[in-house]
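Page 47, continued from p. 46.
Same chain as before, 435 aa.
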Amino acid sequence: MTSKSFYIKTFGCQMNEYDSNKISDLMTTIEYMKTDKIDEADCFIFNTCHIREKATQKVYSDIGKIKKIYKNKRKPIFVLAGCVAQAESSVVFEKSDYVDIVVGPQAYHKLPNLINEFNLKKQKSVDTELNVDEKFDVLKNIKNTNSKISSFVTIQEGCDKFCKFCVVPYTRGPEYSRDHLKILDEVKLLADQGTKEIILLGQNVSAYKNNEITLAKLIKKICKIESIERVRFTTSHPNDFDEELILLFSEEPKLMPQLHLPVQSGSDKILKLMNRNHTRLDYLKLIEKFKKSKPDIQFSSDFIIGFPGEDEEDHQDTINLIKEVNFTLSYSFIYSQRPGTPATNLDKLPQDLCQKRLEEIQGILFKQQVEFNHSMVSKENTVLFENRTTQGDQFFGRNQYMTPVFVKNDLISAGEIKKILIQDANRNNLFGKIA
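Result:
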């Protein structure tokens, strides 16, 4: 079989990045080699995100750009994968006649067969079956070609929370926790390939449970793998933390002292409308439990601004919660209606009001981020270095709080952990020298 090339573009979350890496591994089984040359591919794969309307719009806009590039060339096979594929299914073909194959996030393990079928019959196809067991059974036999210092490992998919704004239960299905032994096999393989840091992924990762193995017990097992130096996990729901997991932050030095803990709103009224099933006080009490366990722990979060029903008092409640917790990094967006979710039928707030509130909240969040980064100046940070930058003599790594750190030094190697004296900072990055 003559080797062909494929180009893959990833939209959205870290789990999509993980899936894209697995898709790339799958493509090698049918002699398709990955290319970065956008004008020379035999196959295009867009692995998509449906969490916000703008993300979906960008997917179709980018399909149009590819169509223009190949206007006077032989058309490549075009695959739309991921959550947009799952949510829109065959409607994708109505929105873009350029797409040939639509495959959901729980069916992408069938992609080699779908591509072979298309090459034979030239017939468009859709596969949006939700079969997570089958997917991971197939993937365990596929050789990993993605070697990184810091690697993602999906341990849990789907969600049973049914927050009224969220499409995940509809695009990823119900909560599913992978077999812990298969996860450990994957981590060991990554460790053998040079991975030093494992980031455990799940739509609701704190709910992980496989037989009697909880997330805390799984992390303990991973930390026993000698060459794994760091462990992180994301994303969590505030309702799914047990005492064992909270205490693990103080007991396990390989578990990094940074936690992404989405709250979405600081208003009890809005939290109830969102069906979050926790209160503002519940969230703040959980934060205090983590601080008691690990005094130097830092938090990041997600905020939805302008959810239907939000008034000025609700907005101020969110601002007050942000000020009380003091987040080091957060993501904030204006509420985006997602077809099929309960909140779609609620009346939207005026866009200009939402934009004003978003700017006010982002101003506070960005200020907190800048202040935290500047608080690192003149202090030593423990940095895991990942790669040399394009500047040649500069290395990139991340400190214990996941903040990017840049150091100019020729004596650093990828995979090394070094004490770095931080000399300067901006909103997003730290700069330093070997201590």
